[in-house]
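User: Hello! I'm new to structural biology and keep hearing that structure can be predicted from sequence alone. Could you demonstrate with PRL2-8? Please show me the input and the output so I can see what each looks like.

Assistant: Of course. The first part below is the input, the amino acid sequence of PRL2-8. The second part is the output, the predicted structure written as tokens.
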Amino acid sequence: MPARDTPPGECPQCWQHAHDRRAHRGLRPREDCPQCVDHMDNGCPYIVPKKPSRWW
């Protein structure tokens, strides 16, 4: 699966782990990803840029 650019307004780690199978390839069945668990407990460590408003 080719790498995709993170869209504006999305956390890069959340996006990669949700859309790239390679992120969790080394885990056994039913094993939690330590990075994802840390992310869920502590929130996104990134300042996520918002999409530019196209209203005007």
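User: So the tokens describe the shape?

Assistant: Right, they're a compact way of writing down the 3D structure. Reading them back into a model, for example: The two ends are 37 Å apart (CA to CA).
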